[in-house]
Amino acid sequence: MEFIKVAILGIIQGITEWLPISSTGHLILADEFIHLGGSEEFKYLFTVVVQLGSILAVIVLYWSTLNPFKRDRSERNRCLTLWAKVLVASIPAGVVGILIDDIVDEKLSTWPVIAAALFVYGVLYIIIEKKLRIKVRIKDTESVSYMDALKLGVFQMLALIPGTSRSGSTILGGMLLGFDRTVAAKFSFFMAIPVMAGASLLRLLRSGFALTGEEWGLLLSGTLVSFLVSLVVIRKLVDFVRTHDFSGFGVYRIILSILIVLYFTVL
What we know:
With 267 residues, the protein is mainly α. Helices cover 79% and strands 0% of the residues.
């Protein structure tokens, strides 16, 4: 039964990590209904480490772009420059994430914070998409400057609050900075790799890797499902952002936030 639960959570992670609707928020809320077994520490560890499956999907799908060991020198240099920009973009979330990790665990991973973040960002999605018209100046990843990357990293930092959405913050942040939609989406995928890998490693180190055989099995199973689902979702999202805006996700977030408040206060 526990393996069925982690498979469901892996599906939720694989879908919501890349859509602008908050994977962490959905996983925390899903546990209200699924009730994954084990300690609270293991459940939180699972919600963080299962993200490794999602970033592995990015590496597999974009290996030709991300491979730093290419034989052609110009291609290799281009790839290393991209990685340098990605690492610069990871600095704000990496530094602040380490400083406030305990606060996120103890104070912010609650339904009121998640509901508020879902609602506020939902409204912002609609306003940004319907009211603002930003001139596109960055039409490929090579045109992203180090300052652009750092600014985008600040938007990613905002996603440390559960319920905000890392992909939503960075993609819309990129659009506000003048990124083409597709470029913003792809660079957002690349930015996820060091941040999510670092968060997973930090969580494993804090746990001392002290997991039972069953817990390791559950963790690996959820990660595998997340990887397989992410392979599909990433492709679909790139196609989606070419011809659609995010206002629909904004409506979804607002409705979900209202349902969360009703569930925890009325039902």
